[in-house]
Amino acid sequence: MSETMGHKAGEAGPASTDARMLRTRAALSAAMLQLLEEKAFDQVTVREITAKAGVGYATFFRHYPDKEALLNDLAADQIRELMEMTLPILFAADSRAACMALCAYVGERRRLWTALLTGGAASTVREEFIRQAKRLPQAQDAPESWLPADLRIVYPTGGAIDVLAWWLQQKRPPPVERIAEILDRLVVTPTLEGV
Question: Alpha helices of the chain — where are they, by DSSP H?
Fold first, then answer.
């Protein structure tokens, strides 16, 4: 590149920096996921994350201030994927189909979600789940009811997390269909009927 374009010859431009940044963040996320499958979040160290990711220790801190921030990003991405798939179905009318989709998604990624929901990261994941649920347009557009708007989001979100965490901790877990039924009958349908 010419110096007049803001970069000296041989220097990487913003596009390559962004690509490198994305690769590094992806490697750090993948390393964190692998480590969460092996041990509780509070036992994972930044050194272990960087070693598994194949990046320098100092590089980690160019991307995240601490391992909690990495976990927050990781949880946010996983929860966003889950919500994009299940919540439109829920608000459409068929809550059982939404529960099936949610449980199937978690079941297919059982090791990851076990790490996220039953380890030291559970409170972070719960908070992120509720934060994202509160941002949904449907959450604000619900009709007036006896149930406060915030509680209309917090209760079913927290209940869903609790049911999923229970399921993931079972030595002989019930099938997806059974958990979807439990989730629908215990958490979703009563909440929707109360609105």
Answer: 14-38, 46-53, 57-63, 67-92, 95-108, 110-118, 122-134, 137-141, 149-169, 176-183, 189-194
